[in-house]
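Lab notebook: predicted structure, single chain.

Context: the supervisor wants predicted structures on file for every construct in the current expression panel, including those that have not yet been purified. This is the next one on the list. No modifications to the sequence; it matches the entry in the shared construct table.
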Amino acid sequence: MQILEAVAAARTGLTLTEIGNRLDLRTPTVHRLVSSLKSLDLLTSQEGSRSYMLGHRMQLLLHATLSTDDYSHLTTSILRDLVGELGETVHLARLNGTIAESVLMVQPEGSNRSFVQPGRELPLYAAASGKAILAFQSPDFIERYLARPRTAYTENTKVGDKELRAELVRVRANGIAVCDNELDPGVLSFGHPVRVKGGYVMYSIGVTGLTDRFRTTPRDFIRDRLSHAAALLGERFGDGD
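Prediction complete. Output recorded below exactly as produced.
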């Protein structure tokens, strides 16, 4: 626990030597404990560096403790600005096991229809916000997830292994995920990954609207505004990239 606390307090990570010096531990002891923490994905070594950061599993535990009030305090102003720019419902989703959970939503003033109420569980393979998270998980996570059974919500839902893998490649290449009548009929959604400290994608920011109305908004503009908002959210969540 002292090692985890020390690494968490150091924004740029700590080397084995720095951990030993801070905690007055011998090098063999530090190496053994850090190796154990790394095997549990509680610590991870930075690529091209000898420093250690909090691992993916530890990050998931930390973010799982955030409440609706925490999310509202951290992100509402960013979501409201995005609603003003796009004129559609915006929401924040987080990875929760094998689903994307909607945790906060902001609607245009006067709107009375929503598809992403907080608490709604969104499938990673069908929802735009889910695809934006799934595409940037580890290869092992993706393989385990794609081995699970899938349900077709509409005639446009992609459920085949080959087409889903191709979809994830497109998301990684374009930086944005699309759900065009794949989850809710008549609804068009876009999702963008949000990176937290360590570069992990645990969140996505999504925008949703009725297909006939939303399709006229240029996709390049949507991508640009989502990307900007995602960068701001990453800063609020402590993006370590």
